[in-house]
Amino acid sequence: MVQQLFTQGSLFDLQTVIDYGQSVINVAQELAKVLIDNRPLSTKTVSYQMNRYFLGTAASGTWQWKDAYEAVEVAQILYLRQKGYKLLLESPLTVLLELEKLVVLCPTQTRRSEESVQLQQFSTPLPLSFLVAKAGFIQATDLIVA
């Protein structure tokens, strides 16, 4: 998929972007099943699903680990959707503990490109994101610019 982005001549080729997005969602759905069963996600499992849905390997340039980590993050969101919104009605400490349990099931994001290190592009861990949202008193009607 990554190679396709560059070989088709345009990063903004609509079909390529749609295919990429659908592949990430497909991988995330598979990974969410593992999380919902409260089983840990190994890098082997993540790699297998990425190879399956991107029709190639990271070594061949079909996908990058940044793509895989994105799929893991989407899987976490799908897991939380499965848990329902009632979790968010619990005390902040309870929510934080649940988020920490979820993060422990996921692989760490240790494989980074030189570019992402140089640009300091790192994902914010889910529990920290929750704490920032709580500390900022973010409401549904607020506009957030990231």
Can you characterise this structure?
It is built from seven helices and no strands. It is mostly helical. The two termini are 26 Å apart. Mean pLDDT is 83; it is low at 4-8.
Question: What order do the helices and strands come in, and which of them pair?
Answer:
Layout (H helix, E strand, L loop, with lengths): L1 H6 L6 H23 L6 H12 L10 H19 L8 H13 L9 H5 L7 H10 L11
**Secondary-structure content class:** mainly alpha
Radius of gyration based on Cα positions: 17 Å
| Envelope shape | globular
Chain oligomer state:
single chain
Uncertain segments are 4-8
Keywords, please?
60% helix; 146 residues; globular; single chain; 7 helices; mainly alpha
Summarize the structure.
By secondary structure, the protein is mainly alpha-helical. The chain has 7 helices and no strands.
